[in-house]
Amino acid sequence: MSSRRAPLPTRHTPLPWRTKAVVAALAAAVLAGPGIAQATPQTAPASASASAPQGQISAAATITWTLERAANPTEDQRTAYDLITRAMNTAVARYNNLSDLGKTITVRYDPGVPTADGNINGTIRFGNRSYMTERTALHEIAHTIGVGTSSGWSRLGGNGTWTGAQATALVRQFDGASAKISTGGGHFWPYGLNYDNEFSNTAADRHVQIVAAMVRDGL
Predict the structure, then answer these.
(1) What's the pTM?
(2) Element holding 58 (H helix, E strand)
């Protein structure tokens, strides 16, 4: 595993319709908060197991996720569930507004995980509180889709540079004709969102677009 902010438009600068749609979706996801994924305490039957899935979100019917919750969560677990829910809601909304990628993801809170991790089998684990953020959620969703975890990744990014035509063309559109996507350790840069100081709304949007282009390349 694993801040710059893009300048806000002035009052008189009209936002493109696509930006308006993404901003509105992200705001709605964050404001909806724990209720969407049922991260607030739920009443469980007496016979329920100690750990049972009790929530699900579908931000735009492409990427969906479920939060596995303890039947009777502790205060620590409730706090973690709320943080994870906000992070995942916002990240999933961004993916679903900027790509047509599909994945069913199961999310767990595991205090034994030093940071967070994502697996191509569709699981994401969050451990450390400081990683329960949109930046981390976007990064880990990419791992569930195949970044650093698929045979396509090994084939197209195994030699230190991504060789797929579509993602390469996209990063050159962003950063100039000599730009390339570097790879290593199961990660990519630029726009891999590997560290907190890489995050901005522009970088987050480009991250999603590059992951989607990698999938088209054969990730």
Answers:
(1) 0.75
(2) strand 51-58
